[in-house]
Amino acid sequence: MSLNGTWIDHFPENYSWSNAALVCKGMAPYGAVAIEEIDRIGERLKARASEPQAWWEEWSTMASRLEKQADAAADEGRQMTAGNYYIRAGNYYFTGERFIPPGDAKLAMYQKALRCFHAGFERRHRNIERVDVPYQGSALAAYFMKAPGVSSKAPTVVLFNGMDNCKEMSVLFAGLEFAARGMHTLAIDGPGQGESLRLRNIHTRYDYEVAGSAAYDYVASRPDVDTKKVTVMGYSFGGYYAPRIVAFDKRFAACVAFGAMHASIYEWVLKIKTVTQSDSSKSAQSAFQVPWVFGAKDIDEALEMSKRFNLEGVAQRIECPVLVAHGDKDRIVPLDSARILYEMVGSKRKTYKVFTVDEGGAEHCQVDNRQVGVDYIADWISANT
pLDDT tens across 286-303, in order? Predict the structure, then answer.
């Protein structure tokens, strides 16, 4: 990455906006965004830097324009073109939704994103199934992407998101690569994530093995899955979820922490509280995000709940192969946290990979060059399951 350019820090005075824009830019290799469109949005936002609502207004404006173009193309029978426009519109709606507080406006924006993603996937990625994963009397929303041309049972990756992401992003940035290598993917909005949080009111939990086991039960019920070769992968906050899952559910063949989580989640939530109360533009997370995901009434209740999110005494129980992948310049989760997680993992079959500036992928979860991270992970899964 360029140390002097704006690819990483599109808004040098606003880390919240820069980080969220970078997450969206990271979808470019998968045909899910257009850099020119993002640049146009960015220029308009720079002119409205003092207006918090400008974020969702400008992303929504671009998304709405593309959605209308997609609808027109669909009406004219140009379905593949319509699919491209729908997917980009879905990503822009979801990016804009990120900083809208929970409520009617946020839900309306999310539903637009979901409508566009569904319409796009139906046209461009017909190997994606919309599925529900049974979970404690309810269900977790997910996609199952089948590897094309695979007739026998295939290795499968169960993929959980982070705190600010969604299964629609996951199924593209990881599922497409895994499918090309003969692996199926279950991209799932677990508790506290995406559709499961927004439309089903399912909040996160410290004992995420409950959700992980539900996901394994689902894929194991399918005739197209090799149950002895199921890997669980989590990115960002999922870097806590995935190790927690395999510590307790031994049926998984391997685990990938695509970006470790903070060694002390309590200290991380405390930092979010401190930073957002002084200058919210310096925080990657909005003030409402953690309480909303946790199902807490406010940040103080979330802070108390966060004490239970701890891998100490848990990661030591892991027996399967584990990959901890992290960026050398990660500004959200410090590299020390990845090293601590790696050292805690009890399995003797473990790998620690740090991506540097020179090779690319040095930012959080390799979002500055996600393809290098996904390629490495795919190679590692193939070699370790």
Answer: 999 999 999 999 999 999
Q: How many residues does the chain have?
A: 385
Among 254, 232, 250, 222, residue whose Cα is nearest residue 154: 222
Distance CA 210, CA 204 (A): 11
Give domain status of residue 353, yes or no: yes
CA distances to 112, 146, 216 from 221, in Å: 32, 15, 9
**Phi, psi torsion values for 75, nearest 5 degrees:** -65, -30
How confident is the model at residue 1, as a pLDDT?
41
Tens digits of residue pLDDT in 24-49: 999 999 999 999 999 999 999 999 99
Domain boundary among 100, 124, 148: 124
Residue 202 φ then ψ, to 5°: -100, 115
The answer to whether residue 2 scores a pLDDT higher than 50 is no
Q: Is the residue at 191 inside a domain?
A: yes
CB 187 within 8 A of CB 143: yes
Write out pLDDT tens, residues 236-272.
Answer: 999 999 999 999 999 999 999 999 999 999 999 999 9
**CATH at 215:** 3.40.50.1820
CB 21 within 8 A of CB 98: no
Full domain range(s) for residue 52? 8-124
Structure-token pair, residue 326: 């992290």
pLDDT score, position 264: 94
